[in-house]
Amino acid sequence: MFFALPFFINAQDVTIYDFETPETSGDFQHFGSTLEEAIAPIIANPDASGANASGMVMEFVKPAGSEVWAGAFANPGPNVNLMGASQICIDVWYPEAGNLALKLENSPSGGADWILTSDISDTNQWTNICYDLTAASIEDPMLPAVGNEYNGLVLFADFGASLDADRTYYIDNIVVVYGGSTEATANYTIDMSEYEGDIDTVFLSGSFNNWSLDTPMTDQGDGTWTVDVIGNTGPVEYLYYVKVSDTWEQFGITDNCVKISYGADGEPEFINRQGVLLDGASVTDCWESCFACGDAVNITFNLGFADNLMVADSVYLAGGGNFENPGGRFRMTDPDGDGIYSITIERERGFTSFYTFANGPCPDFSCKENIGGQDCADPDNFNDRFLDAVMDDTVISTCFGECREDTDCSVAEITNITFQVDMSNETVDAEGVFFAGTITGWQAEPMTDLGDNIWSISYQLGNGPVEYKFLNGTGGWEEFSEDEPCTMVFDDGGNVFINRFIDIDGSATDILEFYCFNQCSSVCVSSNQNLTNNPALFEIKPNVIISELNITIKDQLESLEIFSTDGRRIKQLTQINSGTHGFDFSDLESGMYYVKGIAGNEFKLVKIVKQ
């Protein structure tokens, strides 16, 4: 057993923000509403009485129709050290009863993100609310925040609620309260009823005892073993070990109670249980499970693809708030090469979640399936699928982009497309020339040298827009300005992406896209009926919309069309005059779309995201 001398921190409370001095002020940037990217203003205290008579406060607005998760994040974030801390307290002024959620994220100490809500019943007056840092987060992996260090702080007013009218709040005096003990004694119990094999002695080993095997547990005689641990209050990693068989617990990267440490090669090196050592706590675990024995279920997802669809190098279960962005931990595999991709996860009995599938590692979800309009799509949740409460081990079989209940997938309409690039004006990198785009998950794929400085690559694709670029070597991306006629521009609210594109509409069975590297050429063959791309034809700001599309048109447009990413035309407007217009697109399902405008022999294509 590892012992530490008792030590109680004597630190003073620390004010993170009171908005009175430059050192205790900072910008909070709105998100999830029509105030996207706007900075919350610092104003004179409108009610300098009662619990808060300070001079300056932050005005925090949640507009009508905001996302239920709309809020504001500190940008840049503060450094918050919670070693020896007990609470974070905030002064708030609410016009109506509601709640305020506080989230801490971006932990340099490796701590899990932490979010907690506090109900507010006192209205039209200042009140002080406090968050218990030893309380478990309301989101996975549901661990306390105490003992961690964080560089991100987010506030959510009326978290979980969508408002019918704008609501204005005031925030002040965000303070970390210290005085907690830095030493903890906790009891750990392991239920071995699901262990298969002989047991002589069980050990608890972890970061609190330097991973030694000098801490034997006591057999309770009922299949459980127990031990008391003394260490520093805060985050810990640990595993259980059976001596007679020299067996450590084994976990996978999809388990939700683990901390994953990656090696220099980017592969998982250590996968350990993660927790928080709290004084007086009692922790009960089940061998090799994140849940109590008997409370876990295995959920298997099987995903098929139509024979004529190109499958990326990696396929992912994603989204829904539980499965991360494509490219993360939930990669599906096809070990037997039969074209069926699978993944099995363990979750607690009764688990529910939205989810989707992605053909490639695209953090922006540009390569996710599009099932909009089909029976299994939820238009209020990004057209994701829904997994109802799972009470027993379950197998889900379906097809990419289809609401099927098996992996016998239908054939998709395809076009044979060849991308070629002329490298005559370039010194070709020793690695060669590469292609990357939405169809590859933006992973560079090598092109074939045809001679005479021409490089080529071909695909069979379904209908819909494709964004792409050529690369001179794996890191030599093409670069374009916003007025290049063969490109489209997308601004996600901070990052501007300028990519080549082609709109595959099924009008041709074979297409050749031929360009000079880093250039646009009017003689290139394209799928846009030989129209000329005019980047000045119209402008859409912002590209991320909630309910209204705001567009400024240079000259009259003959047509304005909205397409889904699979090439379906969703809307069409005709004969739109020049000027600035606002169109109600609240009936659009959440997701990614393309806006195409045509005037004479000119056109422009713009990507938008409907939240």
Fraction of residues in H or I helices: under 10%
Q: Strand share of the residues? A: over 45%
Q: Which regions are unreliable across 5 or more consecutive residues at pLDDT < 50?
A: 1-11, 522-529
How many domain units? 5
Radius of gyration: 28 Å
CATH homologous superfamily placement of the largest domain:
Galactose-binding domain-like
The main pleated sheet reads as: 6 strands, antiparallel
First-to-last CA distance: 52 Å
**CATH architecture name of the largest domain:** Sandwich
Coarse structural class = mainly beta
Class of the largest domain, according to the CATH hierarchy?
Mainly Beta
Based on Cα principal axes, name the global outline.
Answer: globular
By CATH, the topology of the largest domain is Jelly Rolls
Number of strands: 47
Tally of individual helices:
0
Describe the structure.
The protein has 611 residues and is mostly beta strands. The protein has five domains: 14-178, Jelly Rolls, CATH 2.60.120; 183-286, Immunoglobulins (Immunoglobulin-like, Sandwich); 306-339 and 349-390, no CATH class; 415-528, Immunoglobulin-like (Sandwich); 538-610, Immunoglobulin-like. The protein is 0% helix and 47% strand. The chain contains no helices and 47 strands. The strands form eleven sheets. Strands 1, 3, 4, 7, 10 and 13 form a six-stranded antiparallel beta sheet that branches. Strand 31 (433-437) and strand 32 (445-446) form a beta hairpin. The radius of gyration is 28 Å and the shape is globular. Residues 1-11 and 522-529 have low confidence and may be disordered.
